[in-house]
């Protein structure tokens, strides 16, 4: 038996102004599989003096962190590691001193990247870890700079990096952690002035969805969740109320919000001030958070082939390969499901636009559980789709996939359906019926194409029209359809065969 080649592992390090991040991934087929993440708060930007020199304490904090990362990277070839340094080392007059000492600790080149390149890579990281939502505005508030990008697919249309970050603004506008309405207003105004030159350009370009990335916006999202906003969506009103509550405290160390960690407290007010200014200047209605950021952008940049596709498609294809799915059968079921769903949901509404791809991916992956065992494989499939790491899919989407494959065959125990927050059960029922019919119609696993089949849907009552005389020459399939009819009836649904 020939030994399988070991998957290639790649690593990216983002040397930010507030934290250093490292992410390690394995290349599996056409997909990236994140296998470890490491983060260390370094506060590099707070070590910049008025002459833009890094003090020794900040240099030492950075080097200590890199020494820890170096332990994880032992044995990695240089072509498999990419390290990017951002705002603070861009500004630092003595950056060369830091880089020289870092070389002896970490034997890989450290790139100090320009602000616009940082913005582009952040957008790439978000785009690869977020389902495509048309034109996106991505905002990343770091320790020393804020990146603002508008792009579509994996291509940026507009990208700027502004010299304002939660560490630098904390130092200038909230000295010694002092919070006051004057400090907050001054910080917000300063940020708005920074954005003045580009705001009109961004509003004119427009976007379909605003997305925030990295620690500052993540912290704000988590505090909003702690305040009862379970969706974690950031809005102008929620930001304004949060700002009012921040001003009830005199010192940043005293901030007491559910979801706010102790090490984030010192720079939280500054981060909220900057984000409030971004919202006001660009007239943003709402913003969601994405886990993708610069480090993910670096990873995907290392492998050109990961570009130009919805990451969810790559995830689904890689998963089908990983579990040795019979691709020909999966494609037959997928094509039949798409054909049927197109007939019963002819109007391309928003819900259909979101759910139709999930039906396709569910069909592609409906047999992943066969890799565990045949008896109850639909349950095994559901478990894998619910609990596997699936880049690009959120928890709700994974739950939908798991639900579809769980109900692809056997009895319809609909009372066991999980609760959903984005979609309603009534949205899923047509998908379940569609996938069940597609699985049944392809039960013989034949290469012979199916004849023309039409379906009419009226809520719980569906009528399937088969070619005349076709059931006589396909008696096994006819028996399977009758069994399917009985399953539907028990669930309170009606399947008519004409």
TrEMBL record:
Quote the NCBIfam families the UniProt record gives.
Answer: exo_poly_only
Q: GO:BP terms for this protein?
A: polyphosphate catabolic process
Give all residue intervals belonging to the Ppx/GppA phosphatase C-terminal domain: 311-485
Could you tell me the EC number(s) of this protein? Answer: 3.6.1.11
Tell me where in or outside the cell this protein is found.
Answer: Cell membrane
Q: Which GO terms describe its molecular function?
A: exopolyphosphatase activity
Report which reactions are catalysed by this protein.
[phosphate](n) + H2O = [phosphate](n-1) + phosphate + H(+)
Subunit structure of this entry? Answer: Homodimer.
Name of protein: Exopolyphosphatase
Taxonomy of origin reads:
Bacteria, Pseudomonadati, Pseudomonadota, Gammaproteobacteria, Vibrionales
Which InterPro entries has this protein been placed in? ATPase_NBD, Exopolyphosphatase, GppA/Ppx_hydrolase, Ppx_GppA_C, Ppx_GppA_N, PyroPPase_GppA_Ppx
């Amino acid at each position: 038996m020939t030994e399988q080649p070991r998957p290639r592992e790649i690593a990216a390090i983002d040397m930010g102004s507030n934290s250093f991040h490292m992410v390690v991934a394995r290349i599996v087929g056409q997909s990236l599989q994140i296998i470890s993440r490491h983060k260390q708060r370094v506060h590099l930007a707070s070590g910049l003096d008025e002459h833009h020199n890094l003090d020794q304490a900040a240099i030492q904090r950075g080097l200590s962190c890199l020494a820890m990362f170096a332990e994880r990277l032992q044995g990695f070839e240089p072509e498999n590691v990419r390290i990017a340094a951002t705002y603070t080392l861009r500004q630092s007059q003595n950056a060369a001193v830091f880089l020289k000492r870092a070389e002896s600790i970490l034997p890989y080149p450290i790139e100090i990247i320009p602000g616009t390149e940082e913005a582009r890579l952040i957008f790439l990281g978000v785009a690869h870890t977020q389902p495509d939502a048309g034109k996106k505005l991505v905002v990343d508030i770091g320790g020393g700079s804020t990146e603002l990008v508008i792009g579509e697919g994996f291509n940026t249309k507009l990208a700027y990096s502004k010299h304002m970050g939660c560490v630098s603004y904390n130092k200038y506008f909230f000295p010694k952690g002092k919070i006051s309405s004057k400090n907050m207003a001054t910080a917000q105004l300063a940020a708005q002035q920074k954005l003045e030159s580009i705001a009109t350009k961004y509003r004119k370009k427009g976007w379909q969805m605003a997305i925030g990335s990295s620690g500052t916006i993540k912290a704000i999202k988590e505090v909003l969740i702690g305040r009862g906003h379970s969706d974690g969506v950031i809005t102008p009103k929620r930001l304004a109320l949060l700002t009012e509550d921040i001003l009830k405290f005199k010192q940043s160390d005293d901030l007491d919000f559910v979801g706010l960690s102790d090490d984030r407290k010192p720079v939280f007010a500054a981060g909220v001030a900057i984000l409030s200014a971004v919202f006001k200047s660009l007239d943003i209605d709402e913003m969601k958070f994405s886990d993708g950021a610069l480090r993910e952008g670096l990873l995907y940049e290392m492998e050109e082939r990961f570009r130009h596709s919805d990451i969810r498609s790559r995830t689904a294809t890689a998963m089908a390969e990983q579990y040795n799915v019979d691709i020909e059968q999966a494609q037959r079921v997928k094509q039949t499901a798409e054909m049927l769903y197109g007939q019963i949901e002819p109007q391309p509404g928003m819900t259909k636009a979101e759910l139709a791809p999930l039906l396709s991916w569910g069909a592609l992956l409906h047999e992943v559980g066969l890799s565990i065992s045949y008896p109850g494989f639909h349950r095994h499939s559901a478990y894998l789709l619910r609990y596997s790491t699936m880049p690009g899919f959120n928890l709700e989407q994974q739950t939908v996939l798991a639900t579809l494959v769980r109900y692809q065959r056997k009895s319809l125990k609909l009372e066991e359906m999980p609760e959903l927050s984005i979609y309603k059960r009534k949205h899923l029922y047509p998908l379940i019926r569609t996938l069940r019919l597609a699985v049944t119609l392809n039960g013989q696993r034949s290469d012979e194409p199916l004849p023309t089949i039409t379906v009419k849907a009226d809520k719980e009552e569906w009528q399937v029209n088969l070619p005349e005389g076709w059931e006589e020459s396909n008696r096994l399939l006819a028996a399977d359809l009758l069994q399917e009819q009985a399953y539907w009836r028990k669930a309170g649904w009606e399947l008519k065969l004409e």
